[in-house]
Amino acid sequence: MVASKNVVIVGAGFAGTAIAQALSKKLDNNQYHLILLNARSYAVDTVATARLTVDTTEKLEDRAFVKLDRIFQKQPGEIKVGIVTSIEKTETGAGGVLVLRSGERVPYEVLVLASGSLWDGPLGIPEDEEDVPNHLASWRAKYSTAKHVVLVGGGAVGIEIAGELKDTYPDKKVTIIQRGEKLFRDIYSDKFRNGMESRLTARGVNVILNDSIDELPAEGAAGITTRGGRQLPDADLVLFARGPRPNTDFIASLGGDILNNQGYVKVKPTLQLSGHDNVFAAGDIIEWKEQKQAAKTGSHAAIVAANVLSLLGGSTSALKSYKGSPELILVTNGRNGGMAYFSFFGGITLGDWFARLLKSKTLMIPMFRKGYGYN
């Protein structure tokens, strides 16, 4: 009997999990063995991490973390926990091998890279599950004891942390410093950007625009001076509230011009890597002119899953192309507020009621748990 060949997906985030579930229903398990490889033994609802690290009452950690054991349900597929350090191609170019930190080598016929993002600061949830309680307790204590929290970055990360702080500590001083002339990037409408600023200032958040800081002060030190000369003498907890970086260092081992200068994976419209037709990429790690958001991963996953099946079936002419997704954003302002923006129909802006209905109240935890088989 001929041994089955591995189809390996690296990353059990939103993109990787969706691709794995789609393939598990359609792959011929007499020919192919599906492996979903993840650095953690669990998944975390990244939408919930701002509140997770601030709030001390909801015990969100009981719901915002799930094991990976129910991803495949009754469909074929293997969950493997390990950290990939490099990728080796075979001399013939057909397939390759993933080298794990443990020394284990995992061969593949087709590889899907969906390794996601690496976060710093409070949103940098540890890889080892046993380290999570200390991480949450540490940041909750820092926020609790701080007299003045300064968040450097006026995008979704800084805004959502500010909103959670104002929910939990209404009287605490909170400042957002944004280097641009408005909050967020200019791909969003002025109505959305100005509306979010108004909602924050109404809650007592100090918003400083057109300014920044060069480096974080030493831990425990109080007081900062911005580039523009503004002094915040009582600022005793200052953190960069910015987006993540792509988790792609190991992918550079494929050689050539695989990554761009920011570390994103260069892909063709079919979401294949140039020169590596049996390697696909999806999710936050791909170089594509769109904002990195979980809402877009469903579109990536559908293309990759369909193209993997076509490739294995020998129908390369049937490969589908990804054409991008509309821009949308839904940002919380605590449990009861927030704003949303959708780029279609000339730009649609929605306010607190919509944010509360879809995200602010539940942080989409029920949807997250359902995606991992925990209904």
From TrEMBL:
Pfam families documented for this protein: Pyr_redox_2 (PF07992)
GO molecular function: electron-transferring-flavoprotein dehydrogenase activity; flavin adenine dinucleotide binding
Keywords, sorted A to Z: FAD, Flavoprotein, Oxidoreductase
Record domain FAD/NAD(P)-binding: where: 6-295
Family (UniProt): Belongs to the FAD-dependent oxidoreductase family.
PANTHER family hit by this protein: APOPTOSIS-INDUCING FACTOR 1, FERROPTOSIS SUPPRESSOR PROTEIN 1
Name the record gives this protein: FAD/NAD(P)-binding domain-containing protein
